Amino acid sequence: MSLYDYLYYILLPVLSVAMVLLFVRFLLGPSIADRVIALDLLITTGIGIISIYSIITNQPTFLDIAMILALIAFLGTVAFSYYLEKRNKNE
């Protein structure tokens, strides 16, 4: 089994199932924190899919896109935690 077979037949289906389950968690999350965590994991899984696509197509440009997505996801999570901290202090 080559690396490309492993990527096609094992990793991409696992990441696809994870995306579906995370999207369901994002829609049904009981609290806003659960939804933010699910969204962060969705972006992280998307970064994994972009990275696999970059390896398969031999296009390192896609890794730049994945890095920008990672930075945006990190900043979004930090902003949300800051919002939660401020909300708890006001109550």
From TrEMBL:
Coiled coil (UniProt feature): none
Keywords tagged on the record: Antiport, Cell membrane, Ion transport, Membrane, Transmembrane, Transmembrane helix, Transport
GO molecular function, one term: sodium:proton antiporter activity
Record membrane topology: Multi-pass membrane protein
Transmembrane residue ranges: 6-24, 36-56, 62-84
Location of this chain's protein in the cell: Cell membrane
Entry's family note: Belongs to the CPA3 antiporters (TC 2.A.63) subunit F family.
PANTHER family: NA(+)/H(+) ANTIPORTER SUBUNIT F1, NA(+)_H(+) ANTIPORTER SUBUNIT F
Protein name: Cation:proton antiporter
Protein's organism: Paucihalobacter ruber
